[in-house]
Amino acid sequence: MIGWEDVYTVVVAMVPLYVALILGYGSVRWWNIFTREQCDAINKLVCYFTFPLFTFDFTAHIDPFKMNFMFIAADTISKFIIVVVLALWAKWCSKGSYCWSITSFSLCTLTNALVVGVPMLKAMYGSFAVDLVVQSSVVQAIIWLTLLLFVLEFRRAGIEGTHAIKPKPKTTIISSSSRVMEGAASEGGEEKDVEEAIGVAVDVKDELILEDSDSISPPFCKLMKVVWLKLVVNPNSYGCVLGISWAFISKRWNFEMPSIVEGSILIMSRAGTGTAMFSMGIFMALQEKLIACGPSLTAFGMVLKFIAGPAAMAISAIAIGLHGDVLRVAIIQAAIPQSITSFIYAKEYGLHPEVLSTAVIFGMIVALPILVAYYWMLEFIH
Protein backbone atom coordinates (compact mmCIF):
# COMPACT_ATOMS: atom_id res chain seq x y z
CA MET A 1 0.00 0.00 0.00
CA ILE A 2 1.24 3.50 -0.87
CA GLY A 3 1.91 5.78 2.08
CA TRP A 4 2.88 9.41 2.42
CA GLU A 5 6.55 8.46 2.59
CA ASP A 6 6.24 6.79 -0.81
CA VAL A 7 4.56 9.86 -2.26
CA TYR A 8 7.37 11.99 -0.85
CA THR A 9 9.94 9.71 -2.50
CA VAL A 10 8.31 10.25 -5.89
CA VAL A 11 8.13 14.00 -5.34
CA VAL A 12 11.82 14.05 -4.39
CA ALA A 13 12.63 12.33 -7.68
CA MET A 14 10.54 14.78 -9.73
CA VAL A 15 11.26 18.18 -8.16
CA PRO A 16 14.93 18.39 -9.32
CA LEU A 17 13.70 18.01 -12.90
CA TYR A 18 11.55 21.10 -12.53
CA VAL A 19 14.46 22.99 -10.96
CA ALA A 20 16.49 22.34 -14.12
CA LEU A 21 13.46 23.31 -16.22
CA ILE A 22 12.99 26.63 -14.38
CA LEU A 23 16.70 27.44 -14.65
CA GLY A 24 16.57 26.88 -18.40
CA TYR A 25 13.42 28.99 -18.71
CA GLY A 26 14.86 31.82 -16.62
CA SER A 27 18.18 31.85 -18.48
CA VAL A 28 16.37 33.02 -21.60
CA ARG A 29 13.13 34.71 -20.49
CA TRP A 30 14.39 36.56 -17.41
CA TRP A 31 18.18 36.85 -17.62
CA ASN A 32 18.77 36.84 -21.42
CA ILE A 33 21.87 34.69 -21.11
CA PHE A 34 21.49 32.64 -24.32
CA THR A 35 20.69 33.60 -27.89
CA ARG A 36 18.39 31.46 -30.05
CA GLU A 37 21.41 29.95 -31.83
CA GLN A 38 23.01 29.05 -28.51
CA CYS A 39 19.74 27.44 -27.39
CA ASP A 40 19.83 25.19 -30.47
CA ALA A 41 23.42 24.29 -29.64
CA ILE A 42 22.43 23.25 -26.11
CA ASN A 43 19.79 20.90 -27.51
CA LYS A 44 22.38 19.40 -29.86
CA LEU A 45 24.70 18.85 -26.88
CA VAL A 46 21.97 16.87 -25.16
CA CYS A 47 20.93 14.99 -28.29
CA TYR A 48 24.38 13.92 -29.45
CA PHE A 49 26.47 13.67 -26.27
CA THR A 50 24.73 13.36 -22.92
CA PHE A 51 21.80 11.21 -24.04
CA PRO A 52 23.82 8.57 -25.94
CA LEU A 53 26.10 8.15 -22.92
CA PHE A 54 23.12 8.09 -20.56
CA THR A 55 21.54 5.35 -22.69
CA PHE A 56 24.75 3.33 -22.73
CA ASP A 57 25.11 3.69 -18.97
CA PHE A 58 21.75 2.22 -17.97
CA THR A 59 21.60 -0.45 -20.69
CA ALA A 60 25.10 -1.69 -19.85
CA HIS A 61 24.04 -2.60 -16.30
CA ILE A 62 20.98 -4.67 -17.17
CA ASP A 63 21.09 -8.47 -16.86
CA PRO A 64 19.71 -9.65 -20.23
CA PHE A 65 19.64 -13.28 -19.07
CA LYS A 66 17.06 -12.52 -16.37
CA MET A 67 14.55 -10.54 -18.39
CA ASN A 68 10.85 -11.39 -18.23
CA PHE A 69 10.25 -12.17 -21.89
CA MET A 70 6.47 -12.53 -21.46
CA PHE A 71 6.38 -8.99 -20.09
CA ILE A 72 8.61 -7.74 -22.93
CA ALA A 73 6.39 -9.52 -25.48
CA ALA A 74 3.27 -7.86 -24.10
CA ASP A 75 4.97 -4.47 -24.24
CA THR A 76 6.09 -5.08 -27.83
CA ILE A 77 2.65 -6.24 -28.96
CA SER A 78 0.98 -3.19 -27.40
CA LYS A 79 3.27 -0.87 -29.32
CA PHE A 80 2.71 -2.85 -32.51
CA ILE A 81 -1.05 -2.41 -32.05
CA ILE A 82 -0.58 1.35 -31.77
CA VAL A 83 1.66 1.43 -34.85
CA VAL A 84 -0.96 -0.42 -36.91
CA VAL A 85 -3.82 1.81 -35.72
CA LEU A 86 -1.86 5.00 -36.45
CA ALA A 87 -0.74 3.74 -39.86
CA LEU A 88 -4.34 2.94 -40.82
CA TRP A 89 -5.46 6.34 -39.53
CA ALA A 90 -2.80 8.13 -41.58
CA LYS A 91 -3.63 6.11 -44.70
CA TRP A 92 -7.42 6.05 -44.75
CA CYS A 93 -8.69 8.89 -42.58
CA SER A 94 -9.22 12.26 -44.27
CA LYS A 95 -7.59 13.99 -41.30
CA GLY A 96 -4.80 11.42 -41.07
CA SER A 97 -1.19 12.55 -41.13
CA TYR A 98 2.02 10.57 -41.04
CA CYS A 99 3.76 13.38 -39.16
CA TRP A 100 1.06 13.35 -36.49
CA SER A 101 1.23 9.55 -36.43
CA ILE A 102 4.89 9.82 -35.41
CA THR A 103 4.08 12.27 -32.63
CA SER A 104 1.06 10.26 -31.51
CA PHE A 105 3.21 7.13 -31.30
CA SER A 106 5.62 8.97 -29.01
CA LEU A 107 2.75 10.18 -26.84
CA CYS A 108 1.16 6.73 -26.56
CA THR A 109 4.21 4.59 -25.93
CA LEU A 110 7.41 6.35 -24.85
CA THR A 111 7.77 6.78 -21.10
CA ASN A 112 10.08 8.39 -18.57
CA ALA A 113 10.23 5.19 -16.55
CA LEU A 114 13.63 5.60 -14.90
CA VAL A 115 12.84 8.91 -13.18
CA VAL A 116 9.16 8.56 -12.30
CA GLY A 117 8.40 4.87 -12.81
CA VAL A 118 11.13 3.38 -10.63
CA PRO A 119 10.25 5.14 -7.34
CA MET A 120 6.51 4.91 -7.98
CA LEU A 121 6.35 1.21 -8.84
CA LYS A 122 8.84 0.30 -6.13
CA ALA A 123 6.43 1.81 -3.60
CA MET A 124 3.50 -0.04 -5.17
CA TYR A 125 4.87 -3.54 -5.83
CA GLY A 126 8.44 -3.76 -4.59
CA SER A 127 11.81 -4.45 -6.20
CA PHE A 128 10.54 -6.94 -8.79
CA ALA A 129 8.46 -4.13 -10.34
CA VAL A 130 11.60 -1.99 -10.59
CA ASP A 131 13.30 -4.77 -12.56
CA LEU A 132 10.37 -4.90 -14.99
CA VAL A 133 10.36 -1.13 -15.47
CA VAL A 134 14.10 -1.07 -16.15
CA GLN A 135 13.70 -3.92 -18.64
CA SER A 136 10.99 -2.03 -20.51
CA SER A 137 13.22 1.06 -20.55
CA VAL A 138 16.07 -0.92 -22.09
CA VAL A 139 13.79 -2.34 -24.79
CA GLN A 140 12.40 1.15 -25.40
CA ALA A 141 15.91 2.48 -25.94
CA ILE A 142 17.07 -0.39 -28.15
CA ILE A 143 13.98 -0.81 -30.35
CA TRP A 144 11.47 2.00 -30.11
CA LEU A 145 13.67 5.06 -29.72
CA THR A 146 15.89 3.70 -32.48
CA LEU A 147 12.81 3.22 -34.67
CA LEU A 148 11.70 6.77 -33.85
CA LEU A 149 15.15 8.05 -34.78
CA PHE A 150 14.99 6.17 -38.09
CA VAL A 151 11.55 7.58 -38.97
CA LEU A 152 12.63 11.12 -38.10
CA GLU A 153 15.78 10.80 -40.20
CA PHE A 154 13.71 9.39 -43.06
CA ARG A 155 11.31 12.33 -42.86
CA ARG A 156 14.15 14.85 -42.79
CA ALA A 157 15.93 13.16 -45.71
CA GLY A 158 12.70 13.22 -47.71
CA ILE A 159 12.21 16.93 -47.10
CA GLU A 160 15.82 17.82 -47.87
CA GLY A 161 15.85 15.53 -50.92
CA THR A 162 12.73 17.14 -52.38
CA HIS A 163 14.21 20.62 -51.96
CA ALA A 164 17.49 19.51 -53.48
CA ILE A 165 15.91 18.53 -56.83
CA LYS A 166 16.42 21.40 -59.27
CA PRO A 167 14.93 21.77 -62.77
CA LYS A 168 16.99 22.67 -65.80
CA PRO A 169 17.60 26.41 -65.95
CA LYS A 170 14.91 28.27 -67.80
CA THR A 171 17.41 30.61 -69.45
CA THR A 172 19.11 27.75 -71.31
CA ILE A 173 15.96 26.79 -73.25
CA ILE A 174 14.90 30.37 -73.91
CA SER A 175 18.36 31.43 -75.03
CA SER A 176 18.41 28.57 -77.55
CA SER A 177 15.03 29.58 -78.96
CA SER A 178 16.20 33.21 -79.07
CA ARG A 179 19.14 32.31 -81.29
CA VAL A 180 16.79 30.60 -83.73
CA MET A 181 14.57 33.64 -83.69
CA GLU A 182 17.49 35.93 -84.49
CA GLY A 183 18.50 33.77 -87.44
CA ALA A 184 15.01 33.79 -88.86
CA ALA A 185 14.41 37.49 -88.34
CA SER A 186 15.95 38.44 -91.71
CA GLU A 187 13.62 36.10 -93.64
CA GLY A 188 10.47 38.12 -93.08
CA GLY A 189 7.99 39.24 -90.52
CA GLU A 190 5.77 36.15 -90.85
CA GLU A 191 8.52 33.72 -89.91
CA LYS A 192 9.54 36.00 -87.07
CA ASP A 193 6.01 35.87 -85.65
CA VAL A 194 6.08 32.05 -85.84
CA GLU A 195 9.42 31.84 -84.08
CA GLU A 196 8.20 34.16 -81.32
CA ALA A 197 5.20 31.91 -80.80
CA ILE A 198 7.55 28.94 -80.49
CA GLY A 199 9.57 30.85 -77.92
CA VAL A 200 6.47 31.56 -75.88
CA ALA A 201 5.47 27.88 -76.07
CA VAL A 202 8.90 26.81 -74.86
CA ASP A 203 8.66 29.35 -72.06
CA VAL A 204 5.29 27.98 -70.91
CA LYS A 205 6.54 24.41 -71.12
CA ASP A 206 9.55 25.28 -69.00
CA GLU A 207 7.31 26.88 -66.38
CA LEU A 208 5.26 23.69 -66.24
CA ILE A 209 8.44 21.66 -65.76
CA LEU A 210 9.43 23.98 -62.92
CA GLU A 211 6.07 23.53 -61.19
CA ASP A 212 6.11 19.75 -61.59
CA SER A 213 9.60 19.51 -60.15
CA ASP A 214 8.38 20.86 -56.81
CA SER A 215 6.30 17.73 -56.27
CA ILE A 216 9.01 15.27 -57.30
CA SER A 217 10.31 13.14 -54.46
CA PRO A 218 13.75 11.54 -54.45
CA PRO A 219 13.88 7.79 -55.16
CA PHE A 220 13.29 5.47 -52.21
CA CYS A 221 16.70 3.78 -52.52
CA LYS A 222 18.45 7.14 -52.50
CA LEU A 223 16.46 8.17 -49.43
CA MET A 224 17.38 4.98 -47.61
CA LYS A 225 21.05 5.49 -48.40
CA VAL A 226 20.96 9.00 -46.97
CA VAL A 227 19.09 7.79 -43.86
CA TRP A 228 21.52 4.96 -43.15
CA LEU A 229 24.50 7.25 -43.59
CA LYS A 230 22.93 9.68 -41.10
CA LEU A 231 22.24 6.90 -38.61
CA VAL A 232 25.78 5.55 -38.93
CA VAL A 233 27.26 8.84 -37.72
CA ASN A 234 24.57 9.43 -35.08
CA PRO A 235 25.86 8.44 -31.60
CA ASN A 236 22.33 7.62 -30.46
CA SER A 237 22.45 4.64 -32.81
CA TYR A 238 25.40 3.23 -30.87
CA GLY A 239 24.57 4.02 -27.25
CA CYS A 240 21.92 1.37 -26.69
CA VAL A 241 23.52 -1.25 -28.98
CA LEU A 242 26.92 -0.99 -27.33
CA GLY A 243 25.30 -0.90 -23.90
CA ILE A 244 23.29 -4.11 -24.34
CA SER A 245 26.28 -5.77 -26.03
CA TRP A 246 28.42 -5.02 -22.99
CA ALA A 247 25.61 -6.26 -20.73
CA PHE A 248 25.61 -9.64 -22.50
CA ILE A 249 29.40 -9.94 -22.33
CA SER A 250 29.79 -8.77 -18.73
CA LYS A 251 26.98 -10.97 -17.35
CA ARG A 252 28.04 -14.01 -19.37
CA TRP A 253 31.72 -13.94 -18.39
CA ASN A 254 31.57 -11.77 -15.25
CA PHE A 255 33.59 -8.91 -16.68
CA GLU A 256 33.81 -5.61 -14.87
CA MET A 257 33.97 -2.37 -16.79
CA PRO A 258 37.32 -0.63 -16.26
CA SER A 259 36.89 2.18 -13.78
CA ILE A 260 38.52 4.72 -16.09
CA VAL A 261 35.96 3.90 -18.81
CA GLU A 262 33.02 3.91 -16.43
CA GLY A 263 34.09 7.23 -14.94
CA SER A 264 34.41 8.76 -18.40
CA ILE A 265 30.88 7.66 -19.26
CA LEU A 266 29.32 8.68 -15.95
CA ILE A 267 30.66 12.23 -16.03
CA MET A 268 28.46 12.96 -19.05
CA SER A 269 25.62 10.48 -18.60
CA ARG A 270 24.68 11.84 -15.17
CA ALA A 271 24.02 15.19 -16.83
CA GLY A 272 21.62 13.65 -19.36
CA THR A 273 18.26 14.15 -17.66
CA GLY A 274 19.17 17.52 -16.12
CA THR A 275 20.44 19.05 -19.34
CA ALA A 276 17.41 17.70 -21.21
CA MET A 277 15.03 19.45 -18.79
CA PHE A 278 17.19 22.58 -18.99
CA SER A 279 16.87 22.49 -22.78
CA MET A 280 13.12 22.07 -22.45
CA GLY A 281 12.96 25.15 -20.22
CA ILE A 282 14.89 27.11 -22.84
CA PHE A 283 12.45 25.94 -25.52
CA MET A 284 9.48 27.08 -23.39
CA ALA A 285 11.06 30.49 -22.90
CA LEU A 286 11.37 30.98 -26.66
CA GLN A 287 7.65 30.39 -27.20
CA GLU A 288 5.05 33.15 -27.07
CA LYS A 289 2.80 31.21 -24.68
CA LEU A 290 3.59 29.00 -21.71
CA ILE A 291 1.44 26.21 -23.17
CA ALA A 292 2.82 26.45 -26.68
CA CYS A 293 0.55 23.85 -28.28
CA GLY A 294 -2.72 25.15 -26.78
CA PRO A 295 -5.20 23.47 -24.42
CA SER A 296 -6.83 21.19 -27.01
CA LEU A 297 -3.57 19.53 -28.08
CA THR A 298 -2.51 19.36 -24.43
CA ALA A 299 -5.68 17.42 -23.61
CA PHE A 300 -5.17 15.24 -26.68
CA GLY A 301 -1.65 14.37 -25.53
CA MET A 302 -2.85 13.53 -22.04
CA VAL A 303 -5.54 11.20 -23.41
CA LEU A 304 -3.02 9.35 -25.58
CA LYS A 305 -0.52 9.06 -22.74
CA PHE A 306 -2.77 8.07 -19.84
CA ILE A 307 -5.62 6.24 -21.61
CA ALA A 308 -4.68 4.97 -25.08
CA GLY A 309 -1.24 3.65 -24.09
CA PRO A 310 -2.40 1.74 -20.98
CA ALA A 311 -5.45 0.42 -22.87
CA ALA A 312 -3.26 -1.07 -25.61
CA MET A 313 -0.98 -2.56 -22.96
CA ALA A 314 -3.95 -4.08 -21.09
CA ILE A 315 -5.22 -5.73 -24.27
CA SER A 316 -1.86 -7.22 -25.20
CA ALA A 317 -0.94 -8.25 -21.64
CA ILE A 318 -4.24 -10.07 -21.07
CA ALA A 319 -4.04 -11.67 -24.53
CA ILE A 320 -0.56 -13.00 -23.87
CA GLY A 321 -1.53 -14.40 -20.46
CA LEU A 322 -0.04 -12.02 -17.90
CA HIS A 323 -1.82 -11.96 -14.55
CA GLY A 324 -1.42 -10.78 -10.98
CA ASP A 325 1.12 -8.12 -10.12
CA VAL A 326 2.97 -8.54 -13.43
CA LEU A 327 -0.20 -7.55 -15.27
CA ARG A 328 -0.72 -4.59 -12.94
CA VAL A 329 2.86 -3.40 -13.39
CA ALA A 330 2.55 -3.74 -17.18
CA ILE A 331 -0.51 -1.48 -17.29
CA ILE A 332 0.78 1.10 -14.83
CA GLN A 333 4.19 1.41 -16.46
CA ALA A 334 2.42 2.24 -19.74
CA ALA A 335 0.85 5.24 -17.97
CA ILE A 336 4.18 6.66 -16.79
CA PRO A 337 4.72 10.25 -18.00
CA GLN A 338 6.21 11.18 -21.36
CA SER A 339 9.80 10.35 -22.28
CA ILE A 340 12.12 13.35 -22.15
CA THR A 341 14.08 11.83 -25.04
CA SER A 342 11.04 12.17 -27.28
CA PHE A 343 11.11 15.95 -26.79
CA ILE A 344 14.84 16.18 -27.50
CA TYR A 345 14.36 14.27 -30.77
CA ALA A 346 11.29 16.34 -31.67
CA LYS A 347 13.22 19.56 -31.12
CA GLU A 348 16.25 18.38 -33.09
CA TYR A 349 14.17 17.18 -36.05
CA GLY A 350 11.54 19.93 -35.94
CA LEU A 351 8.45 17.77 -35.46
CA HIS A 352 5.91 19.11 -32.92
CA PRO A 353 8.36 19.87 -30.08
CA GLU A 354 5.73 22.13 -28.47
CA VAL A 355 3.38 19.16 -28.09
CA LEU A 356 6.04 16.86 -26.64
CA SER A 357 7.38 19.49 -24.23
CA THR A 358 3.88 20.14 -22.90
CA ALA A 359 3.29 16.40 -22.55
CA VAL A 360 6.47 15.99 -20.50
CA ILE A 361 5.87 18.97 -18.21
CA PHE A 362 2.17 18.54 -17.50
CA GLY A 363 2.39 14.77 -17.66
CA MET A 364 4.72 14.70 -14.67
CA ILE A 365 2.46 17.09 -12.76
CA VAL A 366 -0.67 14.96 -13.15
CA ALA A 367 1.11 11.59 -13.14
CA LEU A 368 1.09 10.98 -9.40
CA PRO A 369 -2.69 11.06 -8.85
CA ILE A 370 -3.33 9.20 -12.12
CA LEU A 371 -0.88 6.40 -11.30
CA VAL A 372 -2.33 6.08 -7.79
CA ALA A 373 -5.82 5.86 -9.32
CA TYR A 374 -4.65 3.07 -11.63
CA TYR A 375 -3.10 1.32 -8.63
CA TRP A 376 -6.37 1.36 -6.71
CA MET A 377 -8.48 0.26 -9.69
CA LEU A 378 -6.16 -2.60 -10.57
CA GLU A 379 -6.39 -4.00 -7.06
CA PHE A 380 -9.76 -5.42 -8.09
CA ILE A 381 -8.11 -7.48 -10.87
CA HIS A 382 -7.13 -10.99 -9.78
TrEMBL record:
Q: Which GO terms describe its molecular function?
A: auxin efflux transmembrane transporter activity
For membrane topology, the record states:
Multi-pass membrane protein
Task: List the Pfam families.
Answer: Mem_trans (PF03547)
* Family to which this protein belongs: Belongs to the auxin efflux carrier (TC 2.A.69.1) family.
InterPro entries, from UniProt? Answer: Auxin_eff_plant, Auxin_Efflux_Carrier, Mem_transp_PIN-like
PANTHER family the UniProt entry points to: AUXIN EFFLUX CARRIER COMPONENT 1B-RELATED, AUXIN EFFLUX CARRIER COMPONENT 5
BP terms from Gene Ontology: auxin polar transport; auxin-activated signaling pathway
- Where is the chain membrane-spanning? 6-25, 45-62, 68-90, 97-120, 132-152, 227-249, 265-286, 298-320, 358-377
Q: Which UniProt keywords apply?
A: Auxin signaling pathway, Membrane, Transmembrane, Transmembrane helix, Transport
Q: Which GO cellular component terms are attached?
A: endoplasmic reticulum; plasma membrane
Does the keyword Membrane belong to this entry? Answer: yes
- Top-level lineage group: Eukaryota
Function recorded in the entry? May act as a component of the auxin efflux carrier.
Q: Where in the cell is it found?
A: Membrane
Is Membrane given among the entry's keywords?
yes
Protein name in UniProt = Auxin efflux carrier component
What broad class describes the main subcellular location of this protein?
membrane
